[in-house]
């Protein structure tokens, strides 16, 4: 699964970037994990290792209540483990669902679209409206492709039994289009229409590679259920999952709404309303207010995790240090800030989850702002 070139990089990629993927062959880029560069996502191999440590077996169910780009669900499927992924961002549901579908979807129509990439770009631009760099990130979609409309289209296809590959192709092309817009924003001067060509080449490369590895009989893959929902009110029965693995926001360290504003609006999401609901961003206006609200939200999330987890099951939380920002918000010395890992352990104890063990790991490339991540293992009594 991991051998050979992990993904196809654009010709203009730097030597440093190419060397990174060569050095980290077994950490990132394989399967469909490399589709769309979402900020703050898990390393797939770490997820695989943690699910093995947790003792999860094929046929069991793991929950990620804050799934982000869907790494847990994709990795669980590749291990034959069923999964439930929930995120309050509709864009995350769309992204994760597209990555999972790409493991097995028919790529014939995607190849045809690649040969007519200019028309693909024009179609989405005409439908979704101006690009964010032209409108200062304020998008007035003429006809957004909403999550609800995608669900309705999928339900209709399931009832009628036709056009599945057309629907899957549209989703993969839309993700690639949004990827090209985001890329053009990060690297000014690049034409997103031309970037879409290289991005589609990358998508086809990784999809064909993993499909060749999996073969034609994929009945053993774990089943994933993906939802847009709130981790503070999980839509699940008590004691219904075998394990939980997730990484919550590191308080207000990353503004996921601002990062994804174009993509969210393209899907017809009310960005201002989402901000008022998102853990780590809501509350305020002061950063201290946001931090206090974050503590309350995380307690509720851990209570919900304890409710839906089976007795004896493990809840694994991956969380990093954000002490420099929190110290400024609380106006106390950084060395006096309670680590977010310590906060998780405290709130877990109050929520009926026992602390079992903690593994610390350095965060590469972010030494100035975030030095360590902590893997906190909790167990339901």
Structure in words:
The model is unreliable at 133-141 (pLDDT under 50). Helix 2 crosses helix 3. The chain is globular, with a radius of gyration of 21 Å. The longest helix is centred in the middle third of the chain and has 23 residues, at 164-186. It has a seven-stranded mixed sheet with strand order 3-2-1-4-5-7-6, with helices on both faces. The protein is built from 16 helices and seven strands. It is of the alpha/beta class. Strand 1 (61-64), helix 3 and strand 2 form a beta-alpha-beta unit. The relative contact order is 0.13.
The fraction of residues assigned to DSSP E strands is: 5-15%
* Radius of gyration from CA coordinates: 21 Å
State the helicity in percent bands.
Answer: 40-55%
Report the sheet with the most strands, covering strand number, pairing sense and barrel closure.
Answer: 7 strands, mixed
Indicate the structural class.
alpha/beta
Largest sheet, spatial ordering of strands: 3-2-1-4-5-7-6
The ordered string of helix (H) and strand (E) elements is HHEHEHHHHHHHEEHHHHEHHEE
Count of extended strands: 7
Uncertain spans? 133-141
Distance between the termini: 37 Å
Total helices: the number is 16
Write down the overall mean pLDDT.
Answer: 86
Shape: globular
């Amino acid at each position: 699964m991991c051998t050979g070139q992990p993904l196809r990089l654009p010709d203009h990629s730097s030597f440093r970037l190419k060397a990174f993927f060569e050095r980290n062959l077994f950490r990132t880029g394989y399967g469909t994990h490399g589709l769309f560069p979402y900020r703050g996502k898990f390393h797939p191999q770490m997820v695989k290792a943690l699910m093995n440590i947790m003792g999860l077996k094929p046929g069991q169910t793991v929950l990620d209540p804050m799934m982000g780009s869907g790494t847990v669900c994709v990795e669980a499927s590749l291990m034959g483990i069923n999964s439930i992924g929930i995120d309050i961002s509709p864009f995350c549901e769309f992204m994760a669902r597209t990555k999972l579908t790409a493991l097995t979807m028919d790529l014939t129509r995607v190849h045809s679209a690649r040969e007519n990439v200019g028309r693909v770009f024009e179609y989405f631009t005409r439908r979704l409206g101006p690009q964010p760099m032209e409108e200062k990130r304020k998008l007035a979609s003429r006809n957004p492709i909403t999550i609800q409309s995608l669900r309705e289209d999928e339900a209709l296809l399931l009832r009628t039994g036709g056009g599945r590959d057309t629907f899957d192709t549209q989703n993969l092309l839309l993700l690639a289009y949004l990827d090209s817009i985001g890329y053009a924003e990060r690297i000014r001067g690049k034409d997103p229409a031309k970037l879409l060509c290289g991005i589609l080449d990358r998508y086809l490369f990784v999809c064909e590679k993993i499909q060749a590895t999996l073969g034609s009989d994929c009945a053993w893959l774990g089943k994933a259920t993906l939802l847009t929902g709130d981790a503070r009110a999980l839509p699940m029965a008590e004691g219904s999952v075998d394990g939980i693995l997730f990484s919550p926001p590191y308080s207000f360290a990353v503004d996921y709404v601002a990062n994804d504003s174009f993509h969210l609006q393209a899907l017809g999401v009310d960005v201002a309303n989402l901000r008022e609901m998102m853990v780590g961003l809501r509350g305020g206006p002061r950063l201290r207010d946001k931090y206090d609200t974050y503590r309350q939200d995380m307690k509720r999330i851990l209570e919900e995790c304890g409710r839906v987890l089976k007795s004896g099951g493990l809840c694994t939380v991956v969380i990093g240090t954000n002490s420099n920002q929190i110290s400024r918000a609380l106006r106390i010395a950084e060395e006096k800030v309670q680590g977010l890992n310590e906060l998780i352990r405290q709130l877990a104890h109050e929520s009926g989850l026992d602390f079992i063990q903690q593994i610390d790991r350095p965060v590469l490339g972010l030494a100035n702002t975030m030095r360590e991540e902590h893997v906190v293992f909790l167990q339901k009594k």
